[in-house]
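hey so i finally got around to running both of the ones u sent me last week. sorry it took forever, my laptop kept dying halfway thru and i had to restart like 3 times lol. anyway pasting them below in the order u listed, first the sequence line then the structure token line for each. didnt double check formatting much so if smth looks off just lmk and ill redo it

first one:
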Amino acid sequence: MNKQLIGPTPAGHALDRLPGLIRTAFLVTLLTAAALQAAAAAQASGISRIVAVGDVHGAYKELVTILKTAGLVDDALAWSGGTAHLISVGDLLDRGDDSRQVMDLMMRLTSEASAAGGAVHVLLGNHEIMNMTGDLRYVSPGEFASYADLEDAAVRSAALARYTAAATDADFGRSYPAGFFGHRAAFTEDGPYGRWLLTLPSIARLNDTVFVHGGLAAWMGKYSIDDVNKRINSELRNFLAARQILVEAGQFAIESSEEELLQAGRDFLAGEVAETGTETDRALKTLGLLDQARLFSSEAPHWYRGLVACNTIAELGELEAVLDKFGADRVVVGHTPVTGGHITRRLDGRVIMIDTAISPAYEGGQPAALVLEGDGMQALYATDGRLTGLRDAVPRIFSTASGMDRAAVENFLRTAEVVSSVDLPDGVTEPRKLTLRQGDITLNAVFKYADIDNNAKARRKKYRTTDSYKFDVAAYRLDRLLDLDMVPVTVLRTVNDREGAVALWIPDSMTRKEIKEQNVDASPQCSISKQQELMYAFDYLISNDDRNLSNMLFHKGDWQLLLIDHSLAFRNRTKWPQYYTEPEFTMPAALAERLAALSETGLAGELGTLLHPSQIRFLLKRRDELLEKHGP
């Protein structure tokens, strides 16, 4: 049976900008009834009780435990939540053996809750989409085995015949374990689970709260919730339809992976496959264009991690714009496990993180749910069954310090025992690397003690030649005042009878210079350009004369930009630092608000022991210039 590719997509879609695709008869302009059902977001108000659960990943027993704790199911696992609404933010699948049971339970509870006047909402996570598109890296052997009853022996035999032409039967069994082909059949658009998943939205709004698996990227602020849901559903259906055409034509098989299909599409667009104008050509073209679509983008609602991983100031303004568009006050997300398995909030409470890693595949997690009743919002943990307050997220530059918050790290750097002190090879002021220990915590730090030309004569020279450890501490304190979280914790401390600045050493990081020299393929989940614009603003604010590739530090994994070495800053001038041509940028509104709140009295209280009053006055002059020329 041939499949038609399904449209349309909202205006401004990435595919709309690529000529030819949506004008061809290969795409129709009407969504099917099922697609419309999926696109119709779960939007409801006046709900008295909402219970939200994070990523389950096949942890059936743990899911049942938290549902019982929340009073949503009884001992027979029948719905007992009355008019309450249960919402799953996705990732029911992968990593655990019992994901099929999890889906069966959620499907049944959906019907039972509706009959009782309540509701069950399930959102698409990235792992639901991966199972449908053929990215099966995280499917456990037990998960495959659970679909053995759906496996067609003839399909398996045909696949074996294809496989043994190039490999052995034993290799086939390892690559395609029992139940593999039943799993693939189950997740097609005509399969029992694929059909259900295609009715699920990516985003929902209940009362004044938005729920999504990964996060809300800035582009979503141009659309309604319905439009975003239609877009993801449409792209997913187009992928599945294109794959089915190619499978029926014999160009691909049911076991073909998502990456194999997308690569074939890329090759077609690159002209590596001769175009014949056939239906299979149109399918390949569609796959090539879908490779650039939101469905597979790091900014898709099921993939985006910016809200939980990236700089607060860079994300907050964009999030507020999306929430305003969606008519909500906050967003609840899963996707990224939270430290210690505790439900956590960040971005001034606008983001609630509920992936508490309940699957035994993770360490340190626990079954938990977020409960919203009236104006209240609390965490419920299965361990004690009590409602408790939410935890505040630890800024990520401190998360490498044993999960300590800012105040704890500052105290550690001031008071921990100095176990060792060694010279660092870089730095003209002879910095030293310290190893600090307190209790069972051991961390490294950098100690700088140079204080050159920091006197009355230097003031007359507008501090043009001053190089002082005090400016490193002042830069950190200003970063703290602004909640910028780009300068590692830095404190005053005396080491071996010399006062200096002790700054937290960030492990697992690389300088911009090292990244370039080693040609590292950094794939940031946090926008480098947005982070650099914050750096521009900060460097001008502090009149920093020493920004270079060696003191732009990136934390591996999330590639967040950290700023170090500020001893050549706080000059008495208003022009841009010597190495800068004034860049074109507009600062986020959140940063502008924090800058506007700075006062001479407040800065004197924070920085008065580190800077001369004239340096503080020039800092405020530069602040005014920033707001005038680069404000929102």
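and the second one:
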Amino acid sequence: MSTPIPLSKRPADLAFFAFFFLHVPASILDGPIAALSIPALSAIFPQAINDFQHKAWIDHTGDPFILAAEAGAPIERAFVVIETLVLIPMMIGICIRLYSDDKRLQWLSYVYALYAAPTMSYVLYQTLIADHGLSVMQKLQIASAYVPFALVPISFGIYEWRVRAQERVKSE
């Protein structure tokens, strides 16, 4: 097994690490919506977080995806529950993998990218293309929040696959 290269010497990994490290708190803010589906989670996410989420985001943008999840729409609610219960731990695992340069955890990158592509395509369609009566400014605000969460994980999966392929070629 090779010696791990420090994260500071791997600029692409450092950028992806920063993305996933910052993505965890953003996903945790979706927790109150997941708590609607899983009552045991409601104790974890205090009302103050839910109030903040509404004042800072939902009331301002009219985000149809979040509103649909809160209203109990099954697909939207399932996405938020999966994000809370599966993807947050997976993102933490990806951060550990990137920080420690542990190739054994590389599969997390592929799984995350494969999940993010169709999920975010649906979310972007529902928020930006479907007619929900949003203004152009609201759509731009929503796009600025969601597009990075679509493009970065997909880019990361492709990057990880490319790096792994190069390592296989070198070892042959």
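quick thing i noticed on the 2nd:
The helical segments are 11-28, 31-37, 47-61, 64-71, 74-100, 107-129, 136-171.
anyway thats it, ttyl
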